[in-house]
Write a structure and sequence with these properties.
A hairpin with a 4-residue loop joins strand 1 and strand 2. The chain has one domain: Thiol Ester Dehydrase, Chain A, CATH 3.10.129.10. The chain is of the alpha+beta class and 143 residues long. A 6-stranded antiparallel β-sheet has the order 1-2-4-5-6-3. InterPro entries: HotDog_dom_sf, PAAI_dom, Thioestr_dom.
Length: 143
Amino acid sequence: MSTAPIWKKPASAEEATERLASSASGHLGLRITEIGPDFLRGAMVLDHRHVQPWRVLHGGISLVVSETLGSVGAFLASPEGFHVVGIEINANHLAPVPEGQEITAECRPLHTGRSTQVWQTEIRRPDGRLACVSRITCAVLPD
């Protein structure tokens, strides 16, 4: 992918994390740690809110991470006067992540069209192993 910034709206990782504070992903402790020229990164330490009864990352939490990063990315990559809504999401869960570990996630666009965008998120364990790969499709709508 190109290293030229794809963002059409200004944002910093700090501002994006602040905006999440009063949402589900903020309640879960997801932080946006970096907004690069064509990607977003996030991180979250897993605690009792994030795990299955077997004390590993719950698949639904992986989808919250993916939907959040993909939606933020799609919003920032859309022109002023437009917002986005998720219309489809899928995930493949590939490796467990135990409670107490920190996951990191990187989200990149696969398609940034005028009416739809597709973003892919890779969630990794501390050892670098891929725990989940997920894609979200967002509709781009006028305000």
